[in-house]
Amino acid sequence: MADQIVNGNSIAPIRNVARMVKLVDQMMNRNPNLPSLATFFGFPGFGKSFGANFAANQFDAVYVEVRDYWTVKKFCQSILEELGVRPDRTIPDMADQISKELLLRNVPLLIDEADFLIKKSMIELVRGISEDSQVPVILIGEEEMPQKLQKWERVHSRILYQVAALPACMDDLEHLARIYCPEIDLAPTFKAELLAESHHSLRTLSTNLSKVNEMAMENDVDVIDLKTWGKSAFQAIAAPAPRRNLA
To answer: Considering the entire predicted model, what is its pTM?
Structure first.
């Protein structure tokens, strides 16, 4: 497949992993006169964090996953912790530390759950770090993150690439099946149903493949088709309907 990437002797064909690696590579090799900010966005379950972790290992990048309860100070401390640097006392000093270390090491900074930075008006700090260090800074967030960033013109105007994570495809399913149910042969019609019922979410698809493996082992079968699966339920994205009259 066109989006395959090689890591040592293994192949990681999940296409959002490949898209993330390609984005970081493009940013690392961009013209130095161009902005150093980029975004990688998409719906929950599309494998954005998985791709970011893989890319972080590939490029020896600094990776942080922002939490909703983080303050500016905690954000800076977390980056410096990843860099192995003892934080200074004030936020301006810590921001300078981050920029200098990133510039010195010339490594990318990958910021997951970046929507929280926008929500808490902390995104200008990221712009300052990206400009001072000139290393690639990738903001990873939800589907509407690019629209949210438009409200911050000084940030939005400095974004070089906006890359969307794609829904899981049949090639992704084939790869995940080799991980979660390697001894099970899945019928083509069953795989199509499984992909549709998982709403093309990598996270949900992985959960459902694990359930397929459990079902196959419990019933001592090595081939699963729609008939074998029967009325067994797939893991759904939506929550189960509330139950009534349990007594």
So the answer is: 0.88
